[in-house]
Specification:
Chains A, B, C, D: It catalyses: 5-O-(1-carboxyvinyl)-3-phosphoshikimate = chorismate + phosphate. Chains A, B, C, D: Pathway: Metabolic intermediate biosynthesis; chorismate biosynthesis; chorismate from D-erythrose 4-phosphate and phosphoenolpyruvate: step 7/7. Chains A, B, C, D: One of its GO terms (biological process) is amino acid biosynthetic process. The structure is a homotetramer of 361-residue chains. By secondary structure, chain A is of the alpha+beta class. Chain A has a single domain, classed as Chorismate synthase, AroC fold (4-Layer Sandwich). In chain A, 25% of the residues lie in helices and 20% in strands. Chain A has 8 helices and 16 strands. In chain A, strand 2 and strand 3 form a beta hairpin. The longest helix of chain A has 24 residues, at 337-360. Chain A is globular, with a radius of gyration of 21 Å. The relative contact order of chain A is 0.17. Chains in contact: A-B, A-C, A-D, B-C, B-D, C-D. The interface between C and D is large, with 115 and 115 residues.
């Protein structure tokens, strides 16, 4: 797996730039006979799709997914199912606005991949960020929709739990609220606050960071493997691979640095007395292997680097200049990372499910 | 890839349990003609070796590395060099004290991998934690010593920057202090404080968490690759794979959630005026690719789960019981993670260096 | 790695069935700044395309390739070049004749993948063979066209050297003849003979096997790696992965079983006296690594299993029955394997070129 | 994946040179709870061990295997079993005769890897061939002994079926004879003939090629996967990776080039009437997936390149010279390839068994 593939048994290879013909992915290793239609995938894509509120980029993409291969009508039941062969998914790029990119074509946006892509490849797709565009994440969401169907009984949900310095009140956590506000925020009151807060940021042409929490419930004990096949190691890689993510933690995460062994121990009791564990500091993973408790991960998303305030930079010739980025950008790109994170975790779990079944039976 | 191998071009496969015959690793893909002796590796191993102060486990292991393959005396110069073939490194287990493990043989230590290994494999090596033992990390340190020699001009160093709630004073940072205290702490004053602080914890039979920071200097711009071959994604996986690590961050990490786009932008200026970048919030990585600035990562290590205070648990039959772990344990296992982290980052960089050279030339 | 991807640094993932929406592939790891247009790929696809003579299936497919990603107009030169990001190639299926498949839907064709796909997946795409259709090889040819551009100065050509029991006369070998007959045959006289020979087979509704030889010239010494990264091992895997291939040999191949060490030795002499080697029994590979001589491989293609003569078989319920396959089939499927083999070898060489450059520089 | 690892789920990484400290391998991904002792492995190693007759190299190695990790006494039964963690196997080199290598140190043996290793790495281990030594195959045999225990009910056996131009009489095939002669030959009469034939070759200081056949019985239908995960593709890679192998075929192999579709079809009949298939031209694999019939593969081994007759070559400076190789060499290295081939096929089958169980359940 170098480069653009992730997973070992449930393998996803993504392709595509924001301003190419299409983006998409190939899902390889999916078990056969799983019911799968474009509608199953479209639902998740619609949740990620920008332009649905004033708080995400106004770029309008239909994000209509097409299944190119790997499914057929079951010869007996007639229902469309997977065949065990690679599932190619394609999303055509439709809103490639013939915008004038001359402003940024030869300048590097601070905090963006412009400089590093050019340093590596000697060329970069300046139109919308090319491969580094958040648009690429649509492919992951499509793959994640397939992954969700692989392990029976697992639910993967994510929520925005912090925007700028403002954290939600965990006592107000209500998963049902996620769909009621444009922030995927489980705290109704904080969501109302975020609306005003982000409006101000948006109007200033600025941007702000965020923290997202992902929770996977129903994961059986035993997924993962020691050392470099650790479930948390793969989760860390998966979340850190999302655009603009700068930190990942599992369970109590960085807070465990302040805990004693007594505080951090998730004590156990006989399962006929209720849950097997009395706490979940571990976030559902011990020694790289799932415990059967909910898997809990959090990650930090930095603020969008495309802002209206001019910043010092250089151009391709190395000369000092300034840059400001007009256009359709996300004031808080963390918002759209919510369904992407769900998809990544679903892919990791599907992969580990198949790997576990392979090794242990 | 899966399980016990990491890296793609510079590939390390580790093996071994704390109470088996030996631990070790196979380093595959190392370029030829690099001078390499056992002494080159032994130095790093000695830094990780436990039993050197009262603040680490009193288990005494010589940790003497043996090179089994992959090197020979150069036919002309006579110096021992790599040949391009796999380098197998072995460290024999010498201090397998024939301890009485009956206390923990059938009980799960809360916060430990005991329960999950058994849930996965139907068997676990209760003697010293088996594969989940911190002893496994000696193999990584050995591999890291090889990795350090692969990229010319790169220095990878790590330091303990927090123990429990106590953070170092960054104004006091002095790399030279790292070797002067048993905590790899760059702040001389705080190191003195940690000595008293950890003594108390040790005497109580308790344990405490920590935060470690790794810095890689001299990394050229251009290492890494988009999406799932991101340098930060691989760093996150590498650090999260270390025993007891619960969080990883790059550059400003979780703090970026509170920043605006203006604050987070690492502005640039013409390189003849000094450094190319005016700040390094990004921690040396943008879009998954190195910028040429120092790469900065931090990670949190939870407190050792083996403590003297009894904790509620169950035994293999599912019956309620209590457990306390006597024996030679680390009051702050984060300390020994410092050279391990250096090794992991060195391996990731060596791998990406070879991958980059392969794709781009 | 597993399933539908081949290559490590130059990685190709193919997808698609004969009767799905489209087939195609994702080429990952291609170096940047290589000129690449759809026309570059179309030429190779046209050579493989069926329906060009009466000696291949009459299925008519435009086989028009579309580049979905990974290229852009160079900002300075304007020429379309690779960017270093994944290149997705798609070929839409246009001739999915709404044929009546009821004859074979529930029966297994002897010698075909019908039975094994169903044994593995519990479902099979009976329409045209699904994933096992020779149509999948168009994706490989497309990938191969990209691979050809990766190593400078390498030429990969293949030729049909045997049909049924009839071998070409090697004294008549003329690469220029390859394009002059529908068999990719380098022996003009034998090509004329094959036309009559295959006409008879075709009219009888029968089929016949063939042997193909691939030659790669201009490959530098040093590509490959010991043991499981051997160049010949990867060539064997690549050729054996082509539909209907049952044998692969390198250099003198099976004939070396009859040679003595004296006969088999490729003697060497100082290169200023002419070629470095006096013979090429080894087919350009020693110890898994290229010698700098032409790489020569041959492979046997079994006769198409779809024939007009009824054969005993069973149906899905396990009941005895007979089957004969009407429709548009290849009397000698080996013919179309010629450009496919070139593509596979080009991919293997590109991969090893990048791997070698990565490890050794 | 690359270099020195083979397999995806059942992964074997080998290391070691003929004149280093030790050779060995790490077997990763082996299921837990499989009984495994050193004696289980030693039996296979003893079959491969040289010096047991005058027909193999007189190099004397104890080839004593040591299990370094991955097993423990089962806490309840006491039997030594696998734990699911990596199994490291080591065989120390004991007969590193301090021979004078000055004759070949600076010359390239024709037909040997000397030239290519030096071309690739700029260095080669001239002592006994280093990594290219047949000694490396002991590691594979050790890994194969583990693999044999992974799939229940599968038997993998190999036999020498041709030496020089002399083929066995298939009517005389008796597996029981394999152990009764030093050639692993199933034809008693031909074995007697080979003894005289090879004595002559040995006395002349010459060498001769051979063909080996491997048969795996009891393999269930369904192992393998389309396209690049084909079972026959992996078998071809595995066999071609053995030293000196120049050709591989499955089932009827190259002979299928001469067959018509009618002849090549393996007809089927209802299984209550006897075997499901009426013939096995396919060698147990169709479309890359096992049929449930015996898997049959053959491969050609070239004659040893180390011979007593002087051959023209060059030295490291490129000057013309001659070389002849004294020492302990195999007159027919194909003989020792017999247990190696069994081991490789066992590894491939174990890997595909785990992969299949992972994807399909």
């Amino acid at each position: 797996m170098s480069f653009n593939t992730f997973g070992h048994m449930f393998r996803v290879t993504t392709f595509g730039e924001s301003h190419g013909v299409a983006i998409g992915c190939v899902v390889d290793g999916c078990p056969p006979l799983i019911p799968l239609t474009e509608a199953d995938i479209q639902g998740d894509l619609d949740r990620r799709r920008p332009g649905q509120s004033r708080f995400t980029t106004q770029r309008q993409e239909a994000d209509q997914v097409k299944i190119l291969s790997g499914v057929m009508a079951h010869p007996q039941s007639g229902a469309q199912v997977t065949t065990g062969t690679p599932i190619a998914l394609m999303i055509e790029n439709t809103d490639q606005r013939s915008k004038d990119y001359s402003d940024i074509k030869d300048k590097y946006r601070p905090g963006h991949a412009d400089f590093t892509y050019e340093a590596k490849y000697g060329i970069r797709d300046y139109r919308g960020g090319g491969r580094s565009s958040a648009r690429e994440t649509a492919s992951r969401v499509a793959a994640g929709a397939v992954a969700r169907k692989v392990i029976p009984g697992v639910t993967v949900r994510a929520a925005l739990v912090q925007m700028g310095p403002h954290k939600i009140d965990r006592g107000n956590w209500d998963w049902a609220e996620i769909g009621n506000n444009p922030f995927f925020c489980p705290d109704k009151d904080k969501a109302a606050f975020f609306a005003d807060y982000l409006d101000d940021i948006r109007k200033e042409g600025s941007s702000i960071g965020a923290v997202i929490e992902v929770v996977a419930e129903g994961v059986p004990a035993g997924l993962g493997a020691p050392i470099y096949g650790k479930l948390d190691s793969d989760i860390a890689a998966a979340l850190m691979s999302i655009n603009a993510v700068k930190g990942v933690e599992i369970g109590d995460g960085f807070a465990t640095a302040e805990l004693t062994g007594e505080q951090n121990a998730d004590e156990m009791r006989a399962s006929n007395q209720g849950p097997l564990f009395l706490s979940n500091h571990a976030g559902g993973i011990l020694g790289g292997i799932s415990t059967g408790q909910p898997i809990v991960a959090r990650f930090a998303v930095k603020p969008t680097s495309s802002i209206l305030t001019p910043r010092k930079t250089i151009d391709r010739s190395g000369t000092d200049t300034e840059i400001l980025t007009k256009g359709r950008h996300d004031p808080c790109v963390g918002i759209r990372a919510v369904p992407v994170a769900e998809a990544m975790i679903a892919c990791v779990l599907a992969d580990h499910w198949l790997r576990h079944r392979g090794q242990v039976g």
